Amino acid sequence: EAQVTQNPRYLITVTGKKLTVTCSQNMNHEYMSWYRQDPGLGLRQIYYSMNVEVTDKGDVPEGYKVSRKEKRNFPLILESPSPNQTSLYFCASSFSWTGDLSYEQYFGPGTRLTVT
Amino acid sequence: RKEVEQDPGPFNVPEGATVAFNCTYSNSASQSFFWYRQDCRKEPKLLMSVYSSGNEDGRFTAQLNRASQYISLLIRDSKLSDSATYLCAVNSYSSASKIIFGSGTRLSIRP
């Protein structure tokens, strides 16, 4: 089954304790992305990756890191989480992007993170 | 001005009604447009891509108006199961590889 998986689905942690949220897709997609969703603010892109070893900042990258060492995986790293990073996080992937065209994205089930 | 804007709603309509909502975008060079559906606390799921010629899928019709820079979603014969938040997405002003989402329009269908 074609899918995007994220782990963990729920996480409660304390300020400053490093954490990683994993994301994996089995569709051989080139493009992967991380979003956070907060009430009233919608989905905001944190980082995206156009291919292995190619990443770029989205609109809200502060406090986050990513890596793309393999095509299927795109982990999100919070080196020193803070309470303002409490949010619902989604990973997404799409086939690619070409010139001016983007392609539809497929989302993981989400990770609900609480930082106390 | 936000790159992508939607009326947050909620739109509260009776079952069987036709409902439409728009999504405006600021980048006249945008080429890719999408509608996603999101149920409460779940992941967004692609509803349809929006092409220049419009797109229809059963009860759902999406249109693109480049002159006025908006996309629209029309739902005919609405069902209770259509209750959800509808998100539009447009590729970014700064880069086609970035997708900007609207904040979503909440739709509630009542019996």
Structure description:
The complex is a heterodimer of chains A (116) and B (111). Chain A has strands spanning 4-7, 10-13, 19-25, 31-38, 42-51, 54-57, 65-66, 76-78, 87-94, 97-98, 101-102, 106-107, 111-115. Helix content of chain A is 0%, strand content 53%. The radius of gyration of chain A is 13 Å and the shape is globular. Chain B is an all-beta fold. In chain B, the strands form two sheets. In chain B, strands 2, 4, 5, 9, 10 and 11 form a six-stranded mixed sheet that branches. In chain B, a hairpin with a 6-residue loop joins strand 4 (33-38) and strand 5 (45-50). Chain B is globular, with a radius of gyration of 13 Å. The mean pLDDT of chain B is 91. The interface between A and B is medium-sized, with 29 and 24 residues.
Structural class of chain A: mainly beta
Total strand segments of chain B: 11
The H/E string of chain B reads EEEEEEEEEEE
Number of strands of chain A: 13
Low-confidence stretches of chain A: none
Structural class of chain B: mainly beta
Low-pLDDT regions of chain B: none
Q: Approximately what portion of the residues of chain A adopt beta-strand conformation?
A: over 45%
For the sheet with most strands of chain A, the description reads:
7 strands, mixed
Give the overall pLDDT of chain A as a whole number: 93
Q: Whole-number radius of gyration of chain B?
A: 13 Å
Quick structural gist:
The complex is a heterodimer of chains A (116) and B (111). By secondary structure, chain A is mainly beta.
